[in-house]
Amino acid sequence: ISQLLGHNEHLYVKFPRGYWMWHLAMALIFTFLGLNNLFFPENSYDLPRGHEAVPREDLACRFYGCTSLALAFLMWSFWGTMDKGVVRTLLLATAVCHALQVLALVTSQWGALLNWRTLTYLLVRSVLVLPNAYFYRNIGFCGLRMRKSTSFNNLRDCVYNSNSSSNSHGK
């Protein structure tokens, strides 16, 4: 009924240009990272390590793969959603994920010589935070803001209430 009356909120939602491509790219990236790290931890390009594969790192890599797949599942599940709260939460989660990975890499490599692979990883993850922050800021939260009414009923009620209250004070 709300669609017939024209009060359906999702019809008026506009996202910034490029958001859907970014959402698709993040879903594909997390799906690939998750599958790669879960099934092929020894070939993971995502963890900067030396030439030797340490077996205990394989378990951590598999856990990282599971976490990446869980985030990819969320991205695919909410594909096409028009709820700004959900979209902002997804953007914040992916930005926090990338930022924490940069922080983890910097703290683990602190004092060690950084090679080109580690620097590339740092650069890519740092750059991935920026579009998430951009879309997070530009989508905005619509929960507490005033919005335009689609009818004059609310205005008429406000005018009626203000007139009746001024008449009651004037008597």
TrEMBL record:
Coiled coil: none annotated. The keyword Cell membrane does not apply. It is found in: Membrane. Its main location: membrane. Pfam families: p53-inducible11. The chain crosses the membrane at residues 20-40, 61-79, 85-106. Keywords: Membrane, Phosphoprotein, Transmembrane, Transmembrane helix. It is a multi-pass membrane protein. GO terms for cellular component: membrane. It comes from the Eukaryota. PANTHER family: TUMOR PROTEIN P53-INDUCIBLE PROTEIN 11. This is Tumor protein p53-inducible protein 11.
